[in-house]
Amino acid sequence: MRVVALFAAAVAAVALSSVPVAAQQKPPIKVGMLEMLTGDLARYGIPLRDAGMFAIDEVNAAGGINGHKIEPFVEDVGVSPEGSVQAALKLIQREKVDILMQTGTSGHTLATIPIADQYGIVMCNMSTAEQITKQGSKWTFRVARVPNSVLDAKFAQYVAKETNLRRIAVIYGNDEMGRDAASVFVKGLAANGITPVANEQVQPGDPDVSAQVTRIKAANPDAVFVQGHDTEAAMIIRTARQLIGPQVTLLGFDQMMTTKFIDQAGGPKNLNGMILRTGMLGEMSADPDLHRFVDAYRKKYPNADMLLPMIQYAGMQVMFEGLRLAGDNLNHENIREAFTRIKDFKTIFGPVTTEPNGETMNVVHIIKYEDGKQVVLKENY
Questions:
Q1: Which residues of 173-185 are buried (b: 16+ CB within 10 A; e: fewer)?
Q2: What's the pTM?
Q3: Position 21 pLDDT exceeds 80
């Protein structure tokens, strides 16, 4: 019986070797998805996960990448940076993933960079903190997202040179994203001869910000720069409108334009006149590929706010391009080298090119919220 079994195995091996290579099923590409699925940040994480899976399903339905299907492995990172570290280790050590897609906060990303470096695995991310690409990591790539170092420096320049606003107050959430954005903005103002009349911070989870806003009111600002995650930022705006009034100009960022945030902030009247910066035009863009995605995504998720899904989808597009350039050689170093060769690749947010530090985009648009509508003030500022 053992002879028969060995003979059968040999016949099977010969038969397999005679099948053309193109007809043989290629191994899947294992993608580790680091997602915020529980806790307060799940309000961001779940839409990001859904859009990532949508992109993977779309690519797999078209035959995969170079004939390799994408096999996703999803791990919850929770709200703490340490959660991302543990999730990444599990994906690398247990699941043996080929690449990581980090969809967490800047804090999650910064905590996980040493793990990507230690294990020599590409980690894509869409976080915005300036420090992410200043860690000396050759394995970390910010995909289809503009960093705060560009966004808020340009925003400060616009405010200083293109408006009459001079008495500017700053208030931000005291986390990695808020501190980073506010610091860049204040430095940008200083470079243009403006010193903030007030500089306040809000601790994540604070139930009340009236003390900070009262101090800002005493400084008699004509504009208030607001930065932070939606809960803190919305509370700041509601309180500013109550205590200071509608005459002060709000200076914000793109995530304040979602339907959910507008409701949290007290409705369109509280945001009227707000000027904000963004790295993507979103649905204001004329790009047909972007609108094709939006239409297809809304068929599956009719009530979705599209900002986060668009960000995730564009990031997935860049990741897929890096994997495409890697060909059939999916060892970690070859994938990393392939990412460095991404050049003028078209995403739904426009073309991306990988810079030596792992950045891929540096475009900034200036938007104004008027009478419930977004109006482009400056494109590619």
A1: bebbbbbbbbbbb
A2: 0.86
A3: no
Asked whether residue 164 falls in the same domain as residue 264, the answer is yes
Nearest Cα residue to 88 out of 167, 31, 3, 28: 31
Residues 6+ apart with CB under 8 A from 319: 31, 99, 101, 124, 143
Confidence of residue 5 (pLDDT cuts 50, 70, 90): very low
On the question of pLDDT at 122 being above 80, the answer is: yes
Cα atoms in the 13 Å half-sphere on the side-chain side of 287? 18
3 state DSSP class of 261:
helix
Structural domain harbouring 257: 148-278
Q: Which two tokens stand for residue 289?
A: 């590929």
Evaluate whether residue 154 is within a structural domain. yes
Mean pLDDT of 79-86: 97
Dihedral sign for Cα 112, 117, 121, 127, please: positive
Query: Mean pLDDT for the chain?
Result: 92
Single out the residue in 217, 252, 278 at which a domain terminates.
278
Identify whether 43 is part of a domain: yes
Statement to judge: residues 152 and 109 lie in one domain: no
Domain boundary among 278, 310, 337: 278
Mean pLDDT lowest among 112-116, 120-124, 225-229, 235-239: 225-229
- pLDDT tens, residue by residue, 254-302: 889 888 899 999 999 999 999 999 999 999 999 999 999 999 999 999 9
Q: Work out how many domains the chain is built from and give that number.
A: 2
Strands 123-125 and 70-76, bridge-based pairing = unpaired
In whole angstroms, what is the distance from residue 309 CA to residue 328 CA? Answer: 29
- CA-to-CA distance for 225 and 267, rounded, in angstroms? 19
Give φ, ψ of 356 to 5 degrees: -55, -25
Residue type, 161: K
Q: Are 99 and 156 contained in the same domain?
A: no
Query: Which ranges of the chain would DSSP assign to H, the alpha helix?
Result: 2-17, 42-61, 81-93, 106-119, 148-162, 176-191, 210-218, 230-243, 259-264, 268-271, 288-300, 307-326, 332-339
CATH number of the domain bearing residue 207: 3.40.50.2300
Average pLDDT over residues 96-105: 97
Residues 221, 193 contacting (CB under 8 angstroms): no
